[in-house]
Please model this.
Amino acid sequence: MSVTVAQPGHLFCFGLGYSASRLAACLAARGWAVSGTSRSDEQAAAGRALDYTMYVFDGTAGGEAVWFDGVTHIVVSVPPGRDPGSAGDPVLAHFAEALADMPTLRWLGYLSTTGVYGNTDGAWVDEAAPLNPNVARSVCRAAAEAAWQDLAAAHGLPLHIFRLAGIYGPRRNVLAQAAMGQARRIIKPGHKFSRIHVDDIATVLEASMAAPNPGAIYNVCDDEPAAPAEVTTFACSLLGVDLPDEVPFEEAAETMSPMGRTFWEDNRRVCNDRIKDELGVWLAYPTYREGLRAIYEGEFSS
Model:
């Protein structure tokens, strides 16, 4: 179920990428104005082709206050630096003053990650769980969350934080890997990941926009954390291709990039009750099965 915002407004997206663009498309179809940033003119051109007002922001220089004229809702999907010694959140670094003085702003959403919870050895976490990030990029995310909360508290901004699990959807999924023979079945007993389909992210964001609750934090994930090998097995069954051999994690880790290995350092299961209880969200894809089946039907079946 999707709870829609009754009155069209003006959405501004810092980082009009994979997730934010799904929300933008939904709202634009109902008469919303959409504007936002991309990191290059080439990327911005794709938004302009959809009649979005686009600006270039690569994190190194700010923009103009006029960018935000009439903006009612903002999504921030630009990540902070991945090194705790970096300059921090680039949007705050260049736009904090402008954001603090926006009389038309009704809702502000910051897209974070469930990585801020760190490792719980498979135990469940909800939004009240302590933050205990143990990889550099998640440490930076936790610091960015705190900085956004400080700005919101100082200026009364309608901030909402969304902690996203692993994102998949059209063009970004294990089906594509399996179809090319590049999928792996890595075995690490007891290790599970939470996921979320990109369209369900848009549903959650719009539900929050329809029922603002400044200061709220939401886990955005599906109902069933699952082992990656289990997801790969299901994808191969949909495609009718042979399963790749099982590979123990210790062996697979030898060929992973340093970044790839960090994803396996945290083992937790993420609870999504709040998006259901407070926002009335029913996920279109409550598990990876529904999500991958829909992608298969849309991209792979003839």
User: Anything to note?
Assistant: The longest helix spans residues 136-155. The mean pLDDT is 94.
